[in-house]
Amino acid sequence: MAQQVENLEELKRKLYLFAVPFLIFALIMNNLFDASVGVGFYVDFLLILYFSIGWILIYKRILFRFVELSNLVFVSIHQITQFHQGVHENLIAKNESIGDFSMFMPLIVVFMYLSLGRKKGLLLSLIIFFITLCLGIPYITEIQTYAMDSLVKYYLANIIYILAFYYLQFALGTFTELKSIKSNAYVDPLTEIANRRKMYLYLDNHLKTNDDLSVILLDIDNFKSINDHYGHDVGDEVLQEFTKLISQHLSEEDMFGRWGGEEFMVFSHTSGSNAMKLAENLRRTVDYYSFTKVGHVTASFGVTSYRAGDTKESLFKRADVALYQSKTNGKNQVNRIDAKELGRA
């Protein structure tokens, strides 16, 4: 969850860095061709100044949340003042449309949801909408037909945007949550590689193809001693470091997962001697590597290759027997068992 929050904050930061200069430019152009100097002009000037300072602070990663919320306050005030000005200067006085500021309404609603989340964003959006209602409704009798049409369209569009973005964010949030749940169901939380469930699923799909496949079962030697001597926190770090080390020496086609505890499994699209070479290479890699907090660590390996008619159980059993041989014969070695030696389970 912390990682998700961090990613969201960084995403918002990049969006603001990209969008704010365009917003500043739009505010400048809006006032450049507007001869009138009213409350809206001074609000726009303050916004240009503050957005410029805010952009620098966001770029420097200073007071990000404060800048975000204060920008939201200024944008909300700007929305209200522009609406008030549009009602009096455009709708009532000139019988024209309410103003160009309405083009930014969808972006403002998105900004509210992005800054505050779905529920608080909806609340603020409705508050601003209610304020504009209070500012516009009392003057209905003074507004002519064309201008009235513009006002009604503004209100309808506003409420549609508010509700549409609310349900869109709700749908996206639900989709992301379901996707995360599904992803986490197949990922080991400590090492962030495939878990046993994912390995089962991968093998089930492969057994339908009869393609070459070897199973390499590997186990960190004397891992209990590491936990007993250094503590379980260090033991977890060893598992994570071990995972990264093995992953760096596998191809993209190989499937690597945590089988349980200090046991891991590799599915490689090789067979026979090539699988043994891969396992031996991994064994040497671990043997020659110095782990950050515990130094020298070794691992034992059991290898077997798929034969027509194999099941998950027969493959796992042979790999387990091969690993057992490596353990009982002195550890830090590779052993292979094929179907002819053991027979299928």
Automatic annotation (TrEMBL):
Q: What class of enzyme is it?
A: transferase
Enzyme Commission number(s) from the entry: 2.7.7.65
Q: Write down the superkingdom of origin.
A: Bacteria
- Key word Nucleotidyltransferase present in the record? yes
Task: Recite the UniProt keywords alphabetically.
Answer: Nucleotidyltransferase, Transferase
User: What name appears for this protein in its UniProt entry?
Assistant: GGDEF domain-containing protein
- The organism is Robertmurraya yapensis (ex Hitch et al 2024)
